[in-house]
Amino acid sequence: MGLDRAPSMLKIARAKVAMLPPDVSALIEIVDGDMRANALNRQFKLAIIPYRAFLHLLTVQDHRAALASIHEHLEDGGRLAFNIFDPDLEMIVERSSDIGDALTRLMECETPETGRKIVVWDSRRYDLERQIVTEYRIFEELNPDGVVVKKTYTLLALRWVYRYEMEHLLELCGFEVEALYGNFMRGPYTPEAEQVWVARKVG
After folding, report:
1. Pairing of strands 132-142, 117-127
2. What domains are defined for the chain?
3. Angle at which helices 163-172 and 60-72 pack, to 10 degrees?
4. N or C: which end of the chain has fewer CB within 10 A?
């Protein structure tokens, strides 16, 4: 069962499920819902929150509501696995001032449809009080002469969570931490890299 509240994400997920063999797609259910409050009337052995999606929750109250809802939907001893980024303190300090608004070149790639170059620009502002990073990205599509033929703006807001803050939240919401890894290969946790958590329902 997959849950999301964004219509565009649900549409993509359902389209991908429809492309699977019928015996596989019959096992998959895509649900329109909010991780902070939903009633699926089922319990699971495992819940995952992939690709740092937990950080889209912008308050501690939202974090606790989501963890409480997941706790309710897990079997006794069921596990929660998820990842978040570990805050880069140097970057936070630098970009909590006016320099946070400065555009920096993030990457280049090519569109698979046209082969045109895409240049991605990034601007970030860190709010120290609320622990929220607001990130603007600009995608410029260039023709062979280097002229911008299309420009797209996106906005992303995330609330970063420190290691011991996350551990406390999990324990407060009825979980016991089984592991904290620094990457998806079960490497050791190191600051300013990745937090990959595995926690077990105990309460």
Report:
1. antiparallel
2. 34-87+161-201 (3.40.50.150), 89-159 (2.20.25)
3. 50
4. C
